[in-house]
Design brief:
Number of helices: 8
Largest sheet: 4 strands, antiparallel
Number of domains: 2
Oligomer: single chain
Shape: globular
Radius of gyration: 19 Å
Distance between the termini: 47 Å
Order of helices and strands: HHEHEHHEHEEEHH
Mean pLDDT: 83
Strand content: 15-25%
């Protein structure tokens, strides 16, 4: 499409949404919390912008500000744990939730019941995180157009409550939406129905302590 048409479509989408999104790209393996802190301070000073939430894509390819490079002398457990601790500290410092992602081990890729032990590279990551959940997919879920969400760790609430629930996924647009079908008991092991309004309200008032 032409540049004018593209600009018009973007402007039309902007009118339908609220809020601001700022994207910053760093070279792989070079950005650490020092860079993130400088960016947040610069945005606050120059653009009067303070984010409500920060997404880091993704934690395992960030750098540590305390441990300089892998170099063979630092094992992956200590290095990834250091990165996780620094990012958690940044979240506390700026009083903002930070969300990131990690991958599973090779055994976790084929596991329909992923656990904390399936976290790749370092178990120090789940030891540091306050909230972790797994996105699980298999042939049955793909046919239903859904993804299973399983709570792995939750320091804010009982992780056994709403331990599993499903959400709809449109993979062509990578869009998630509420599963209004009430869930499939065979998929979620007959867990209680997921109360979306209760959870939305709880996260709406969420503050880092």
């Amino acid at each position: 499409m032409s540049k004018d048409m593209f600009t018009a479509k973007v402007a039309d989408l902007a009118r339908k949404t609220t809020g601001r999104l700022i994207v910053k790209e760093y070279p792989t393996g070079s950005a650490h919390t020092g860079h993130f802190r400088a960016l947040l301070n610069e945005l606050k000073l120059k653009k009067q912008f303070k984010p409500d939430i920060i997404f880091v894509d993704y934690l395992n390819i960030c750098a540590s500000s305390r441990m300089k490079g892998m170099g063979g002398a630092i094992n992956s457990y200590s290095y990834i744990k250091s990165i996780a601790e620094e990012i958690r500290g940044l979240a506390v410092e700026f009083n903002v939730p930070i969300v990131s992602a990690t991958q599973t081990t090779r055994s976790g890729y084929s596991n329909d019941d992923v656990g904390l032990e399936d976290t790749s590279e370092s178990f120090g990551l789940p030891a540091t995180a306050d909230l972790m959940f797994a996105l699980i997919s298999n042939d049955e879920l793909n046919n239903l157009g859904k993804i299973l969400v399983k709570q792995l760790k939750n320091r804010y609430n009982d992780p056994t409550k709403y331990n599993r629930f499903t959400v709809k996924v449109d993979r062509s647009k990578m869009r998630l939406s509420d599963d209004d079908d009430g869930g499939d008991d065979n998929v979620i092991d007959a867990r209680p129905a997921f109360d979306k309004s209760e959870t939305a309200e709880r996260f709406k008032n969420f503050k880092m302590e």
